[in-house]
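Input record, target 12 of the design panel.
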């Protein structure tokens, strides 16, 4: 019983520290690259609320993660494995894709359901109180929304075999997208957004539009379900058209050309 409590407490602490480190890191980067984006008393108040809800969410996400850790380590009940030869090596990338696709599908449909008026007020309005969202909004959810999001990956580990390193990659991708989709500026270059990556994947420019238009762009990682169900309204022009590193390099190069020698 003590091991179970220790596993739950450890995972709550890990999720909270991971949130503070990654969101804090991107908030710091935002201050460096886009000074003033999070400035002002209103934004400071919003960020305080985002951090409060996110730390509550960390406890709700950490508890089932701790139960899963216990079930894996102490009981051997999960499908998490550590022997590279337990399954085909091809299963490593396939399992990562399977977990991400199932998570994305689950997120799309539960997120769409949460935009129905009653569920929106009950579960999802807190997340949309971030206008515009910041790096701290990554886990800014009402507890009911956190609960709906916290159970899927732990449940999958009981059903679909996954190497512990592949699970680490899934959790890293989940954390990265959760934060970068909310930072309020585009982290990927425009040429990526214009190519196959941008056609298939969601980034800040796509999710920012969900936060301004509400009725579109419900996905998490992939644009697949939004495109299939005709809810994809494309990228937020505000973010996608802002100058990126390539533009800055070109401008600097033009400046050098124009400068008299
Ligand atoms: Zn939403
Ligand atoms: Zn969001």
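The sequence produced for target 12 reads:
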């Amino acid at each position: 019983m003590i091991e179970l409590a220790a596993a739950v407490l450890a995972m709550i602490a890990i999720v909270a520290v991971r949130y503070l480190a990654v969101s804090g890191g991107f908030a710091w980067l935002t201050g460096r690259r886009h000074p003033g984006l999070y400035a002002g008393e209103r934004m400071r108040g919003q960020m305080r609320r985002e951090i409060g809800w996110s730390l509550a969410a960390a406890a709700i996400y950490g508890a089932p993660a701790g139960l899963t850790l216990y079930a894996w380590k102490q009981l051997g009940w999960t499908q998490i494995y550590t022997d590279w030869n337990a399954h085909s090596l091809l299963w490593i990338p396939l399992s990562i894709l399977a977990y991400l696709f199932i998570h994305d599908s689950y997120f799309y449909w539960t997120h769409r359901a949460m935009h129905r008026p009653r569920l929106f007020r009950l579960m999802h309005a807190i997340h949309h109180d971030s206008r515009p969202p910041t790096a701290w909004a990554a886990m800014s959810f009402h507890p009911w929304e956190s609960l709906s999001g916290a159970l899927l990956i732990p449940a999958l580990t009981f059903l679909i075999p996954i190497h512990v390193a592949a699970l680490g990659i899934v959790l890293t991708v989940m954390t990265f997208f959760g934060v970068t989709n909310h930072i309020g500026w585009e982290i990927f270059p425009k040429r990526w957004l214009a190519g196959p990556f941008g056609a298939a994947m969601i980034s800040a420019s796509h999710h920012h539009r969900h936060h301004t238009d509400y009725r579109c762009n419900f996905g998490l990682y992939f644009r697949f379900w939004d495109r299939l169900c005709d809810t994809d309204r494309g990228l937020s022009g505000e973010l996608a058209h802002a100058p990126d590193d390539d533009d800055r390099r070109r401008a600097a190069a033009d400046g050098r050309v124009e400068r008299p020698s």
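The two ends are 76 Å apart (CA to CA).
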